[in-house]
Amino acid sequence: MSPIELRTFSEKEYHEFFRRYQSDPMMDPLPFRYNHEQISRSYVYNHGGYRDHYAQFGIFYEQEPVGSFQLKRMDPENKCCEFGIILRDDSVKNHGIGTEAIRIGMQIARDQYQMRMITGDTMGRNKRMIHVFEKLGFTLSEIVPQAFVLPEGIKEDRYIFQKQLKEED
Description:
By secondary structure, the protein is of the alpha+beta class.
């Protein structure tokens, strides 16, 4: 059994994750500030059935919450969805945890939600995530120039990747 597991957060685990979460300065130069009430509202919104075609999972490494994985905009008619992932901090990056979480998330999308296509995106400067997409067999489908506007007016291209979900994945 893998030490990496995707499962629903308990509210306590959700708070534990976000108490330790540090935004990645490459993706969001503004530091994250934990706010108990805001995280409680977020938990209810994301886990209370208020969001159609959306599923959120905690990423647990050796039973510790180290990330969040979302299946978003699930379209049951066209059998496609998007995903999002965040990891807690640099201490859990570059160890294969995110890659394995995405692999497990793709299996969940295919097996539990009958999705056949999954899409993910990142900023063009996020070479680590681009490498993960390539390693997992995603194909670059589009580059949207200057789609992200960061503080101080910095503009970044959006790289969109897609993958057909097959039984062997």
